[in-house]
Amino acid sequence: MQRARVVITGVGLTSPNGDTLASYRANLLSGVSGVEFMEHRYIGRVPAGVCHYDEKKYQTRKELRNSTRAGSISIYCAHEAVADSGISWEGLDTSRLGVYLGITEHGNVETENEVYNISKFNYDVSFWTHHHNPRTVANNPAGEVTMNMHITGPHYTIGAACAAGNAGLIQGMQMLQLGEVDVALAGGVSESIRSFGIFAGFKSQGALAENADPTKASRPFDKARNGIVVSEGGAVFVLERLEDAEKRGAKIYGEIVGYCTNSDATDAVLPNPERQEQCMRAALRMAGMTPDDIDIVSTHATGTPAGDVQECKALRAVFAGAKNVRINNTKSFIGHAMGAAGALELAGNLPSFSDGLVHPTINVDDLDPDCAMDQLVIGVPQKLPRAETILNLSFGMLGINSCVIVKKIAR
């Protein structure tokens, strides 16, 4: 059975260095970091990727009080994606619209805050908010989008650690191909900077980035890298079947032509380069491509000493000798947006199909020899000899790997 072709027709996002695709892309090409210092309860001052989008653009003050940060980010991105797609909302059958959002974790922020609040009242649970349960259920971010936008189709929030942004895209694509929906809002979101546990966990592992200059703290592949910069953000894509998009004359960012998710089954934290290589090769097979057909590889590298090296082993195994490919990293600009990472990183590279440029990796002042690759783009953008394909990588804890391949549509 021939599968329906699925395309991206809208992008909505908020990131630490841009709240529209245009501003985000401009900052990626100009080398502008969005990482800043923030004061975190118990932890103190830490570098973090903080978003500054207009929270009240699509929600009232009361709705924001009852909502979650992940829900608010999701609502903002979903509205922006729909507006960008040009889909007419009036008359749209929203029972045929699905919402599929990946997330690393959800509910920790709200629970930590409530425990902190009742600690001031001798842990009297009468001071515990009655909004807690709907705030912390796993489907919350996607569910908040459906309530805000009056969508009556299916919604899932997909827990896939830091591979979740890609997982949301894959789920949306599959539901379109199965005929379960006609439009999918798919991607990933993160509220991770609000969680004490996220920072404390990375700090106890020795994996929390430190630097006197916050804009220099996220430095994948650099010899002086010392950990992860935790970030929030989100990117939501409008996905449609190609025939439907063409019928309404939609602009098309690209077609999802291949994907794979697999599992390391070896370690909860340390990546397995052999499984990462298998994930990339499986996605290439689905797309009917070879490594030479890929123009941009968007890496997952988070800035941890071991993780970056393991990923580079996998990249060399697949792309050694691939002359057209260029390799970059977006976390060097915005930190690690966890469940939103893969979606934001793909969004930042999509404009390459139009401008022919690949944005660089920044903060690589002294390239680690163990991360050296001839195709790595450092410091300044490069003009591509060909800009038609992107291979987007996202990996996560408990050994989950994901790869999505997007191709430019010839028009």
Outline the fold blueprint:
Elements (H helix, E strand, L loop, with lengths): L5 E9 L6 H10 L4 E6 L3 E6 L11 H6 L2 H17 L11 E7 L4 H12 L12 H5 L3 H10 L5 E5 L4 H14 L5 E8 L5 H10 L24 E2 L1 E9 H6 L6 E10 L9 H15 L8 E3 L6 H15 L6 E3 L2 H4 L6 H9 L2 H4 L1 E2 L23 E2 L5 E8 L3 E8 L4
Parallel strand pairs: 3-7, 4-5, 4-6, 10-11, 10-14
Antiparallel strand pairs: 1-8, 1-9, 2-3, 6-8, 9-15, 12-13, 14-15
Helix pairs in contact: 3-6, 7-13, 10-11
Describe, in plain words, how this protein is organized in 3D:
This protein is of the alpha/beta class and 411 residues long. The protein has helices at 21-30, 61-66, 69-85, 108-119, 132-136, 140-149, 164-177, 196-205, 242-247, 273-287, 305-319, 331-334, 341-349, 352-355; strands at residues 6-14, 35-40, 44-49, 97-103, 155-159, 183-190, 230-231, 233-241, 254-263, 296-298, 326-328, 357-358, 382-383, 389-396, 400-407. Strands 5-4-6-8-1-9-15-14-10-11 form a 10-stranded mixed sheet, with helices on both faces. The longest helix is centred in the first third of the chain and has 17 residues, at 69-85.
Strand content: 15-25%
Mean pLDDT: 96
CATH class of the largest domain: Alpha Beta
General form: globular
Total separate domains: 2
Q: How many helical stretches?
A: 14
What is the CATH homology-level superfamily of the largest domain? Thiolase/Chalcone synthase
Radius of gyration: 20 Å
Helicity range: 25-40%
**CATH fold name of the largest domain, please?**
Peroxisomal Thiolase, Chain A, domain 1
Low-confidence stretches: none
Largest sheet: 10 strands, mixed
CATH-derived architecture of the largest domain: 3-Layer(aba) Sandwich
Task: Supply the helix-strand structural class.
Answer: alpha/beta
The main sheet orders its strands as 5-4-6-8-1-9-15-14-10-11
Q: What is the number of E strands?
A: 15
Gap between N and C termini, in Å? 26 Å
List the secondary-structure elements in sequence, H or E. EHEEHHEHHHEHEHEEHEHEHEHHHEEEE
